[in-house]
From TrEMBL:
It comes from the Bacteria. InterPro entries: UPF0750_membrane, YitT. The lineage of its organism: Bacteria, Pseudomonadati, Pseudomonadota, Betaproteobacteria, Burkholderiales. It is found in: Cell membrane. The chain crosses the membrane at residues 18-40, 52-73, 111-129, 149-171, 177-196. Signal peptide: none annotated. Pfam families: YitT_membrane. The keyword Transmembrane applies. Its main location: membrane. Keywords: Cell membrane, Membrane, Transmembrane, Transmembrane helix. It is a multi-pass membrane protein. PANTHER family: UPF0750 MEMBRANE PROTEIN YITT, UPF0750 MEMBRANE PROTEIN YITT-RELATED. This is YitT family protein.
Amino acid sequence: MQSTLPVSQHSLFDDAQALVTGTLLISLGVNLLGTANLITGGTVGIAILLKYFTGVSFGKLFFLVNLPFYILAYKKMGRVFTLKTFLSVGLLSAWSELLPLVFKIGDVNPFYSAVMGGLLAGVGLLILFRHRASLGGVNVLVLFLQERLGWRAGYMQLTIDGAIVLLSLAIVPVDRIAISLLGAAVLNLTLAINHVPGRYGAA
């Protein structure tokens, strides 16, 4: 049954705290994945792979990888969405650079890293999605397809992320790839179950 409660708009403060909270959660999730030498999908996964190849920090690479996608975001999703996405990408890049200075994870079970990293990233993305923001790249594509065609963002991203994770076989051990797929599944099922078109009305 659809809710009959009136729809309210998010305030500027609502959006600001959502972008900060969501990207903080995602940065912690990404840190857990990286500590266990796991991989994930989307532009986050691409940035992690490039980090393995180049040694450049994730934060810097993530910001650069997303630059081409802002054109699609602006054309398909509008100026406000693009601005929020740009800010979200910038915040995640900044938190990823700062996190090692204030928080270091030692030895951690890779299965725990996959599940908790996926959950943290999924909840963080859910917060961003509900405030009409994303982390660019694949997020922009799946949100566009969900709004235009009604395809679930979580299921679409699960398919794309699985393909990206498999491409990492060249540099990531097979056992870590398998565990990484678990993390990708947890992340995207979190989105698929909780991010349903029409269920959440505020913009």
